[in-house]
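Researcher: Let's continue the batch. This sequence belongs to Signal peptide peptidase-like 3, and it's 390 residues. Same format as the previous ones, please.
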Amino acid sequence: MAQVGANMEYQEYKWAYSIMDSSKVSACLISMLLIVYGSFRSLNMEREARERAEKEREATLLGGKPSTSSSSNNNVQTLSTMQALCFPLGSSVALLIMFFFFDSMQTLVAICTAIIACAALAFLLTPLCQYVAGGGGSRALCGRYSAPELAAALLAAAIVAVWVLTGHWLLMDAMGMGLCVTFIALIRLPSLKVSTLLLTGLLLYDVFWVFFSSYIFTTNVMVKVATRPAENPMNVVARRLQLGGAMRDAPKLSLPAKLVFPSMHHQGHFSMLGLGDIVMPGLLLCFVLRYDAYKKATLVCQMGQVPGPRSMGSRLTYFHCSLLGYFLGLLTATVSAEVFKAAQPALLYLVPFTLLPLLTMAYVKGDLRRMWSEPFIAPTTGKLGADFDV
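Model: Same format as before. Here are the C-alpha cells for Signal peptide peptidase-like 3:
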C-alpha cells in the first residue's frame, strides 16, 4: 500500500519533479549566465571606448597624433524606434522563408550559419585568450588584430570545423552561446520606449507562431523551423565530386538557433531554449545595467563620493530586478510546458516578468520619464553628459 501511495503521489506531482530535471536547471542557469556576461561585456566595451576617446582627445590637445586604430564601439549597433517596430515583421518573413524554402537553401543556410557562428565564437573566446596571453599579447600582429584575437579566431574556426564533421550538440551549444553573447554585447537599446516596443512586438510574434500558426499551416511553424536539421555541406561536396567515405557519411547539422541540454535522468531527453529567448530579454537587461552605471556615475559626480549601499533601494538595482524577473519568467514557462505538455512561447512569460517590474520600479523611483526617452543624456552639460551620450 505504501508503494502504491508513493506512485500515486509521484504521478500527481510529476510536473514538479520534471522542472527539477538537470536539463531544465542547466537551461535556466546557463541562459542567465550568458545574459549577465553579455551585459557586463557590453558595459566594459563602452567604458573602454570612452577611455580611448579621452586619451585621443588629450593627445590631440597636446599636439600628438591620434591613434588610427578603430574603436570597438564602431561595431555596436543601436536600434531605432522604426527598427524595433519592424523587427518582428522581418522575423516573421524570415521564418516563413525558412519554412517554405528550407529544402532548397539548407546548404547555403548551413554555410552562412557556420561563418557567423565562427565570428561570434571568436568574440566570445577573445577575453579568455587575452587572459592566457597576459600583458604581452596586446601588440597588433596582422593589421589591427592582436595575437589573442587571432588565436581566438583560429580556435573558433577549429570548433566550427569539428561541428561540421560531427554535428555534436555540445559544439552547437558553444556556437549558440557565442551568438548570444555577441548579440547582447554589440546590439544596444537606447531607451525604455524602444525596449518596450521591441519586446512587446516579439511577444506577439512568439505567441502567434507558436500557438496559432498550426491553424493556418497545419503544423507549428516555429517548432518545425527550429528543430529541422540541415544537410551537411560536406555531403553536397562529396556528391558533386563523386567522393565516398567519411565525407559522404557526414551527419546532418542541427543549426545553432537554440541551446539544447541533455537530461541526466532520462536517456535521450533534451530541453531546448531558443536563442531569441535569451538574446531579446538580454538586450533589456544590458540596457538597464548601462543605466545603473550611468545613474551611479551621476551620483558620484554630484556627491563627490560613491554612495554607500545602506538602504534596500540602493542595493536593489534595475538590473537585479530584471534578472530576478527573467528567472521567474523562465520558471513559469518551464512549469507551463510541463503542465500543458506542449511547446510554450517563452517570451509570453519572459517579457511581462522582466518588463512590468522594471516599469513599476522606475515609476516608484521617479526614473521612468528619463528612462523612457533619453536615459543617457545628462540634464546639465558637462563631462558626464559627454561620457554617457550614446
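Researcher: Any comment?
Model: Residues 32 and 327 are 8 Å apart (CA to CA).
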